[in-house]
Write a structure and sequence with these properties.
homodimer; 355 residues; alpha+beta; 60s Ribosomal Protein L30, Chain: A; 2 domains; seven-stranded mixed β-sheet; globular
């Protein structure tokens, strides 16, 4: 149904895709001011922060996953889906260098979902809570005219002297990521391909056995708890940090913009898994494109001062991929061919044509 | 699309409607334990509570509104919708005798929504934030294959010695509500009737002028901030409290069950607005049925000790409607005809048949 009267009254009809997700959020929230003394950090980072006094912060993040956009019931087992819905929110808390402690889960479902289907979904939610040691403390359950919508709010504990935002990167800092990139994206292409084959010929078996890593990265990602624990243990404080949900390029732009710096990443240093390399080439996609623009990796991208180089070198599973430079340089990729290419941030989903 | 493989693997297929909303939540969350020291109050009340130390609590509530279930773009102006999405969540914080301070807003939209439409929605969100003095500190924006989904998380400040849950009602307590009931439900019936007339005959004008109160109660409800401020000012601590979102009967059952008490409400004392009375009769519905089972009133239902009767009498806009009795009495209505009728809790939406 069209939003009839309200729309008729308006003179302009600007398509949301003209602004994109981030432009749209900027547009809608640009005039928002924080009036409460306790509102420490508002819109514009992976999570918001509330001042609890005594240097303590509560860190809060919310994300919604919509069936048909973020997941497909043809290949998303409900248990994995529940797990992923929790993990992607915990990732935002870790990205602030904070520790998730509680979540709330709000679910809307159509009646195609049985009690047993919801049992599987909640099994995944509870498994994630148990593994990451967070409590499910609230939420609601309501009906939907079509499909499932899962909205999770994660709440974590942080402190003012340890909070890491997108704004602190400085020229000369080192740029790092916590793991290989692009695998979740290639995993999604694989699942989509097998779905299409299955739809055309339902008696064939899906061929997913040779790329278990890619499938797992797509369907059951993990959040980077170990990295945040390492930061604490080794007294290492990144100067900026963000989780990689929309693709490395998009996140580099966020840090560059928020910190007012440029960033140069070396293509040869961007970690890409062997399975990602192989399958990407099978799909005729350049593996580096998957890493830059694929998304859903849920690794952490962070910067550290050059003086912390040794600490980062001892950190397990961390890759140094580039340098923070003067803002005039923009965000660039130093290719294996020895050239500098301007990057594009293409991470977000376009708003789909809909009713 | 059917949740194919996962569903095939299961032996049972239990329709979610066999349990109902509350039974379903009980079923899915019955084995959840709270492991974090800071998790003070989990699932089962209007909001959860996190222990901040020193007797301070953070109170958190989440709710999702889905187009086609909770609102209809034919008659919900986007500004009102944004306002209502915030207010219904603040209502849950007030129901804990706490003070809302921050919200996060997560929105999923199809591309039928223009930037101007979202401007109107955010205008309503910001207006509610300004009126209730809460800060919009975070959220996300994503696409949806159909329609709009708005998920709001409200965060408030409370204290251990002032927190009011559903569990404290005692035999002998007085049962109160903060305002008249059933108006939002009759308002919805009016809007639905005019929508049907309009769909059949688009050139006629809607007849809503004679019931402005009912339309406003449905489209732009308010949360009971004044009541919570009065409790604080007059040092009055209700023994239990809940907000009336699913209808008085449903909420009475929640308090009776959580507090292990019975409740008897006098029909003649249930406040019903003149417009509600008139229009309900026009629709051939008993006005008391609208008050008991209508929902979306967002008034507070609370109980106080008999010793606090004088304080309640001085409270503006409060109605004493009944008594807390022994649990064996159940939840009953003492009708104007002088008979005791067992009430039914019928508040929730059934899960609609869907894809």
């Amino acid at each position: 149904m069209e939003p009839g009267k309200t729309r008729d009254r308006m003179t302009k009809h600007t398509d949301v895709n003209t602004l994109g997700e981030f432009g749209l959020i900027d547009h809608l929230t640009k005039d928002i001011k924080l009036n409460q003394d306790s509102s420490f950090l508002g819109i514009g980072d992976d999570a918001a922060a509330i001042d609890l006094g005594g240097g303590k912060l509560m860190v809060v993040s919310t994300d919604t996953m919509v069936e048909g956009i973020h997941f497909d019931m043809m290949y998303s087992p409900l248990k994995h889906l529940g797990y992923k819905a929790v993990v992607t929110n915990l990732s935002d808390i870790y990205a602030m260098n904070a520790h998730p402690k509680q979540i709330t889960v709000s679910i809307a479902i159509s009646s195609k979902y049985t009690v047993e289907a919801l049992d599987e979904l909640y099994d995944g939610i509870k498994t994630a809570c148990s593994f990451y040691n967070v409590d499910l403390i609230g939420g609601d359950m309501t009906s939907s005219p079509r499909g499932m919508i899962i909205s999770v709010t994660a709440i974590g504990e942080g402190s003012m002297d340890k909070l890491v935002t997108r704004t602190g990167a400085k020229v000369g800092d080192i740029v790092c990521v916590t793991g290989d990139l692009g695998a979740a994206y290639v995993g999604l292409q694989l699942l989509e391909r097998e779905k299409q084959l299955y739809m055309n010929q339902p008696d064939i078996q899906p061929e997913l056995e040779d790329s278990p890593y890619l499938i797992e990265r797509q369907l059951k990602p993990e959040a980077c708890r170990a990295a945040v624990q390492y930061f604490e243990k080794s007294n290492l404080l990144p100067t900026s940090m963000i989780d990689i949900s929309d693709g490395l390029a998009s996140e580099l732009f966020h840090i560059a913009k928020a910190s007012n710096v440029g960033i140069i990443v070396e293509e040869a240093k961007v970690p890409i898994h062997d399975q990602t390399q192989l399958k990407a080439l099978e799909f005729n996609i350049d593996p580096i494109t998957c890493a830059l623009n694929g998304g859903e990796d849920y690794e952490l991208l962070f910067t550290v001062a050059e003086s912390d180089l040794e600490k980062v070198r001892f950190m397990p599973d961390v890759f140094i991929i580039g340098d923070v430079v003067e803002p005039a340089n923009g965000v660039k990729l130093f290719s294996t061919g020895g050239k500098l290419h301007a990057m594009k941030a293409q991470g977000w989903n376009h708003f789909t044509p809909g009713e």
